[in-house]
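#struct-help
A.M.: can someone run this one for me? Single chain, 462 residues.
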Amino acid sequence: MKLRILIVDDEAAIRDELAEALDDAGYETARAPDGAAAAALIAAEAFDLCVSDVRMPGMGGIELLRHVARTSPETLVLLMTAHAELQSAIEALRLGAVDYLQKPFKQEELLARVGRLAEHRKLVVENRNLRRSLESSVADRAAGIVGDSPAMRRVLEVVDRVASLPSNVLIVGESGTGKDLVAHALHERGSRAAAPFVPINCAAIPEALLEGELFGHVKGAFTGASDHKEGLLRTAGEGTIFLDELGELPLALQAKLLRALESREIQPIGSTRRVPIHARIVVATNRDLKADVRAGRFREDLYYRLAVVEIEVPPLRERAGDLPLLVDHLLARHARKLGRPAGRMAPEALRRLAGHDWRGNVRELSNVVERALIFARGDEIGVDELPDLFRSVAPRDPEGPIDLREATRAFERAHVLRIIEKCGGNKRQAARLLGLGPSSLYRKLGDAEPSLDDAAPTPSPR
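D.P.: on it. Structure tokens below:
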């Protein structure tokens, strides 16, 4: 990440000499002739480092240091001081300056100090973002990706192939399938693992604030912008930005994100400068983005820019073989949280879990397992500890039926249940859509007879 440095000195020759040396070293510089001019620049733009002389007309370096500490605490300050002002420099360190240079000094010494501060700045940003990442989803990070079904093996094969590549990745799947875990795996299994992982939920942040979170803003850019804010697209450094619920991103921000992806630069709100970004972009959604493109809700050019690699996370009902592993893992995870023994799921209870369609996917399973553990009376969790709905669920082998006829019946029943759900629970309407009579529909569901509520209405007398 290229450091932005403000050079403050009342001697133009010194400002120009320092700026030229730092520009040649790959930094981005701006210049100010005194503390007041520097304060005005800092109020308008974000700087990583301020290199300032101590003795200047008007606002001097010490006063500028105090001002920066109040108004832009993320900006580091390096003071330049003459020998006679050494005591002032030591006082400045107590006030928050990160270092000082004693005049006269060589350019090599300046570049060495700035290089160390650049590393310091990088570590500060990475640690801040790492804390944000850990706080936002520590439970999910601890869980990891659990599963050995063919569907999950295919997902992990793709993750391993693209983890170290810079290409953008689109992760799709139903809510609760673990798309965020796949994003973490892409980061942690790749070459960026030591850099920050910065998750952003596009649906959880109000639209009015989301642009500032992504692209940053300068002080005074809008009402309430009382300080500088670096955009997360920049503070992620060379790590990974994970945009979850991407389908909720407003069209105006979609256009700005597209420009950022194409130019690899962002322009903070209220700033005239563009700053480079180096993070990899990983996004996720439970929406059908192609349908949103056709409906005009999502930009087609942004979709193709993001979907360089597309990973589809399967729903839990398509990876039934992973259920025993997931249950054991979730029992251990919730047991640690609740401070009790993990226990084990009784075979009959596991078969009832396997018979459920899990519309909420792994998130729903996690809630059911936690509840069962709370109500467990001993080491084994039985059907009685499961929510009431599981007492009426038809048991099923969690590995899936082996007999062809049983597998066919299980598939038909699941398909019929999906159609009934689409019809809002109206079984008569579902039967018509499926081309079945009421008795055939109930046989495929395994129900004995239609209830009075579902029976065909009695014809009115003519």
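A.M.: thanks! The chain has four domains: 4-120, 146-314, 317-391, 402-462.
D.P.: also worth noting: Confidence is low (pLDDT under 50) at residues 134-143, 448-462.
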